[in-house]
Please model this.
Amino acid sequence: MSAHLPEQALPGWRCAVVKVGSNLLAADGGGLTDRYALALAGFINASHAAGRKVVLVSSGAVAAGRALLREHAPAAGDLAARQALAALGQAPMIALWQSLSARPVAQVLLTHDDLRNRRRYLNARSTLRGLLALDVLPVVNENDTVAVDELKLGDNDNLAAIVAALVDADLLLIASDIDALYSADPRRDPQAAPIARVGALTPEVLAMAGGSGSVVGTGGMRTKLEAASKAAAAGIPTVLFGGRDAVTVEALGRDRLRGTLIDAAATRMQARKYWLRHAPAAAGCISVDAGAAHALAGGRASLLPGGIAGARGEFQRGDLVEIVDAGGKAVARGLCQYAAGEVRRLAGRHSRDIEAVLGYSYGSEVVHRDDLVALETAGGMTV
Model:
């Protein structure tokens, strides 16, 4: 079907999340196959070679586990058995991607609870950022062996959108056996037309994917649009493309898309900075010296321990806190990597001393520049 889709420019990106569905990895009635994964891995390898970062969200563990047991595999409706199959299939699924990857592969298992809990959210983000800094390919999947609700949903599309926001990705790419969003279900309506670009996910657009009980809607196009909506809210565009079409996958490596592009609601920086500026902050705050206040006002510096004069009130790791100058004037807001008591102990110290002072380290920045918004420019104008 992709032959009917016009080729368009892929949005510029340096970091992307690629989601691959189980329909592209599981052979008909059998185990995992590299039939379609080979081309997708080639795109990821080429992206790495070009200096780009990629996080892979991959389904297929349950199918792999079932294939290993063959005729002894339990019934699909048994939730506990499916959890066991997921545990059994994780190893071969990771092994498949490692066999195709030019870089080392790291397995990262997450649940939605990991991403709702602020401390675990920061830990997951630190891990993924660390892996990307090491030029490793993180392969993310839901921890189906313990995540009962998530396994019943079977929804790695929405997980991919959450991961895209987690790592501040520039782009979410969703590969499936459907090559685009259509005006109706193309499996039922021969008049269904592919849609090359969606400016906004309106109710009319969502209706094209069908209801939750439709063939396309259940774990299909409906969840992909839900994921695109989450990504758009974070300022991340989404592309939907057919992972079974080698020509389409090859074109991605040339920054060309034959599929559907779903625009972000805003640029990534605008959306994130807006949230940081307007979300409720913790009761406490961090006070900084004049040098740090000036650097933070420029909007491109991280807050390091050396520029901190102290901390007032109480806040926890991951809380949104205000950063104030010596006169108590707020100059920035950001997500703090350390609790208030830890910040007080680190005040005025060098980043290299963090582990010696605390006995552990969450990173050299107290507030990373990606998690910080300046409330004033260096010239004193509010932004």
